[in-house]
Amino acid sequence: MTVRQHPDESLISTEELVAAAKPLIELAVAEDIGPGDATSLSTLAPGTALVGRLVAKAPGVIAGLPVAEAVFCYVDPELTFTAHVREGQAVVAGELIAEVRGEGRSLLAAERTALNFLQRLSGIATQTRRAVGAVGTTQATILDTRKTLPGYRVLDKYAVRTGGGTNHRASLYDMMLVKDNHIDAAGSITSAVQRARDAYPELPIEVEVRT
User: Fold this and answer.
1) pLDDT tens, 125-178?
2) Is 147 a catalytic site residue?
3) Which end of the chain is more exposed for a tag (fewer CB within 10 A), N or C?
4) What is the number of other CB atoms lying within 10 angstroms of the CB of residue 179?
5) CA 74 to CA 117: how far, in whole Å?
6) What pLDDT does 145 receive?
7) CA gyration radius, the chain
8) CATH placement of domain 14-134
9) Which residue is catalytic, options 22, 57, 147, 179?
10) Sequence spans of domains, the chain
C-alpha cells in the first residue's frame, strides 16, 4: 500500500514529448537505416511517390502520434503526416489512424521506426485504459512506476497519462519513497521518515508498508 501525499502532474505538451523523443529517434534511425535502406533504394526509382496508411489491427487507445510524425520528418522533412484520430482516442480494428505522403524511399525507410514508437506508446495507453476501467467503480488509482527502458521514461509516462492513468514519481530526486530497505536500515518507519524530512523538507514523501 502506498500513502499518497502529492498532487498529480499534468500531461506534458507535444513539444516536450517530441523533445524527449528526439535522442531516441536519432538513435533508432541510425540503428535501423544506417547508411541507407538497401531494399527501397534498389527497388524504387528516385522520386517515386507513395501514400502510407497506418491502420489499426486491433482495438486500442492511440498514443504517440507526434513521435511517429517526428520520425518521418527526421528522415525526410518533405514527408507529410496527417493524423485521422486524436491522442487518447479509442479505435477499432480497421480504423485509419494516419496517412503519410511523399518520397517512397524515405517513407519506407522511416516506416518501421515510426511504428515501433507508435505501437509501444499505444500499447501502454491501451493496457492502462483497461486497468483504469477495471477499477472504475472503486477508489483505486492506477499509478505507473520507474520500471521503464532507459531513455523512455518521459514517453512511457506520457502514454500512461494518455490512457487515463496517473504518473507516480518520475525519478529518485523529485519525490521520496520510503521502502522496506530504507525502514530496515533506519530502524523504524518513524526514524526513516524523520531523516527524510530533515534532509529534503521540500520533497513529498510516500511510505511503502507491508500488508
Assistant:
1) 999 999 999 999 999 999 999 999 999 999 999 999 999 999 999 999 999 999
2) yes
3) C
4) 12
5) 14
6) 93
7) 21
8) 3.90.1170.20
9) 147
10) 14-134, 153-207
Sign of CA dihedral 123, 14, 111, 116: negative
Domain 153-207 is of which CATH architecture?
Answer: Alpha-Beta Barrel (3.20)
Comparing CA positions, the residue from 76, 68, 180 lying closest to residue 121 is 68
175 with 169: CB under 8 angstroms?
A: yes
- Cell 509501444 sits on residue: 120
Q: Is residue 164 a contact partner of residue 129, using CB atoms and an 8 Å limit?
A: yes
Do the bridges between strand 80-83 and strand 49-55 make them parallel or antiparallel, or are there none, so unpaired? unpaired
Annotate 116-130 with DSSP letters as a single string.
HHHHHHHHHHHHHHH
Count the Cβ atoms, other than its own, within 10 Å of residue 211.
4
Global confidence as pTM: 0.90
